[in-house]
Design brief:
It is built from 12 helices and no strands. It is mainly alpha-helical. The relative contact order is 0.16.
């Protein structure tokens, strides 16, 4: 893991924005901080994160961890929606979380033998799981190195501010991700850290 990040930083440093972000946050990046060996728990946490802020997500995920602590997967599936909602999530998210546990109860999947597309196709078959959630799973649970999520608003906002762009469309994303490849996931980690801390590259000309 450490050697991969070092290789990524060496490659990404050719981009002056990435060079700046590595200098600012490189030692603070923790790629493992959202990993969970239990796939259902991991994806449930990603469902919680959907469309809420970093800080709010941490609070709700901590509550989720407490209410499912020492419960079996069957016990979690049998929890009432109101109990799940008590952590601060919607009825819909409570349903989606249960869907995930039902899915993994009936299937044994070796994601490590699957391509990125195969993983995404598999996960989006679960009601409540979209491409963003599947991409986050690829980054944080499978540690795939070259994933970029174009619908992640925090990433897009970070790109706008760091690269001084009024808008970020398909062409801009393709250009940047081509330059960052094969380490787009690590570029994302740096961009998220930037927007979370509200520290952005300023081009001193």
């Amino acid at each position: 893991m450490k050697s991969t990040i070092e290789l990524a930083y060496n490659h990404l440093s050719n981009d002056k924005v990435m060079y700046y972000l590595i200098d600012k946050f490189g030692n603070e990046i923790d790629w493992c901080n959202r990993y969970n060996s239990n796939y259902a728990i991991s994806i449930a946490n990603l469902i919680i994160e959907q469309q809420i802020s970093f800080k709010a997500a941490i609070t709700v995920k901590n509550r989720f961890a407490k209410i499912v602590n020492k419960k079996s997967e069957s016990e979690i599936m049998n929890m009432s929606n109101s109990d799940l909602q008590s952590i601060g999530i919607s009825f819909r998210k409570a349903e989606y979380i249960k869907n995930v546990f039902y899915f993994f109860k009936s299937k044994t999947i070796d994601f490590n033998k699957m391509s990125n597309k195969e993983v995404i196709d598999c996960l989006v078959s679960i009601k409540g799981i979209g491409e963003w959630t599947a991409q986050m799973f690829l980054i944080f649970n499978l540690f795939r190195e070259n994933i970029f999520s174009p619908k992640d608003l925090a990433l897009i906002n970070s790109i706008k501010k760091n690269y001084h762009l009024q808008s970020v469309g398909k062409d801009e994303i393709e250009k940047l991700t081509k330059n960052w490849s094969p380490y787009n996931s690590i570029a994302c980690l740096l961009l998220w850290e930037s927007v979370e801390n509200q520290i952005f590259f300023k081009d001193h000309k």
